[in-house]
Amino acid sequence: MHIPLPKKVLRILSKLEDCGYAAYAVGGCIRDYFLGLQIHEFDLCSSATPQEVHACFEGERLLDTGLKHGTVTLLSEGESFEITTFRSDGSYSDKRHPDQVYFSTSILEDLKRRDFTINAMAYSPVHGFVDPFDGAKACRDKLLIAVGDAMERFGEDALRILRGMRFASTLGFTIDGSTHSAMLKQTPNLRKISRERLASELNQTLLGQDAARVLKLYSQILFIILPQLAPMLHTPQKTRFHMYDLWEHTLKVIEFSPAELSIRWAALFHDSGKPASITFDPDGVTHFRGHPLISTKISDECLSSLKQSKMLQQDVHTLVLHHDDRFGADRLQRWLAKLGLDMLKRLLQLQYADIAAHAPHVAAKAHKMLELIPMAETLVEQGVCLGLSDLKVNGDILMRSGVPQGPVLGEMLSYLLDLVLSGKVKNDKEVLINIALKRLNAQ
Ligand code: ATP
Ligand code: MG
Q: Which atom of ligand 1 is nearest to the CA of 31?
């Protein structure tokens, strides 16, 4: 079998071969080739030890990025390539990293330590295609299967559980039976994985085409990582607006929202404050008064515990806080001024997904939220007033017209801005000065 590799990769592989070592492209790049996906990096492996790689590429730029694990990075023609020595791993007492790494001269040994069969394929133009676990078939069957004994693999390194969720979500793969049950059984070790690594895998899982399906299958895993979300499971929503319980509704919102990180996280958190705010009428109808604010506390806490960026935390906070604030075309300019176009669009997309995940008679109205997006874009194109800097009067103009300096001036500008944003008053210098003077005289 021939797998086309870029010239840069072929040069590195043949240089290693010329130095007397076996060398392959391995892992994600071969998987993505079989899946017809864009390959975003080429990981290489070889029988050369890091020192031998250094000697082979003498005069070129090499970084010792992971010497302990046999990895050096070659900087070549503006790109970086990781070259890792074939290895087999010792025991994993911290449930994440091998205690010892044994360098090997066998590609088969090396493929055995990898996580999933689709990631355990290698290719060399000299030695051909190496696929001891039938990863190519798993690619065709869209199946995620652990290499070797699944219980052992997840027991060694619990990050693989999250990688499994990520691949299932992003590739739309089914998780093979024994792999699936081992992922669910080895969850206690998840606590040993760094929050940053968990966050990175969760981000990718949430962005995947099958995020909702995977989060439904592995709710228990998500709840171990973010226990604040666990009360959502089986929380009833007994109102005429909802047909799903809270967790089912949340998953539907994720499913209906676009693959944008802040929107997907906001979809996950938007109603997380409901269990803490639930009240029941005598006839059993549920209410969740004030839940958006409680949900923002949960999203702040969870995202900061995952060490997510401040920007993501803030964006998700804004979306969660306003997810239930409904407005139509008449108040669009005001919301545009408050959030800016980009955030307003995201809020409307979240609201669309949220409404679509209610009962059918509510869901029928969801499209109205999306219809506001082009209207908001038109307002921006028209250059409508969105803040004090767009107002046709400023402090100087008002003072020259007779408004005194001091707090009155600031308060007057806010008042005029508010009128313009409400659409009741034209953003026109003379009109605004007249209103200001009238108000001043009335005070
Ligand atoms: P991505 O598309 O995100 O790069 P990837 O599978 O290539 O996915 P990498 O982190 O680049 O992920 O790892 C490269 C290869 O190393 C994987 O394809 C897999 O063979 C192996 N690997 C990575 N992480 C693990 C792990 N935790 N346990 C076992 N093998 C792993
Ligand atoms: Mg990779």
A: 18
To the question of pTM greater than 0.90 for the whole model, the response is yes
Residue 346 and residue 208 share a domain: no
Which residues constitute the domain of residue 28? 7-141
Q: Which ligand 1 atom is at minimum distance from the Cα of 41?
A: 4
Mean pLDDT score across all residues of the chain: 95
Task: Convert the pLDDT of each residue in 148-157 to its tens digit.
Answer: 999 999 999 9
Task: Work out which ligand 1 atom sits closest to the CA atom of 114.
Answer: 30
> Would you say residue 349 lies in a domain?
yes
Specify the residue with its C-alpha closest to ligand 1, atom 30: 114
pLDDT in tens, 225-283: 999 999 999 898 999 888 899 999 999 999 999 999 999 999 999 999 999 999 999 99
Which residue puts its alpha carbon closest to atom 1 of ligand 1?
A: 28
> Of 278, 283, 227, 273, which Cα lies nearest the Cα of 250?
273
Q: 27 CB less than 6 Å from ligand 1?
A: yes
Residue with tokens 């990293």: 97
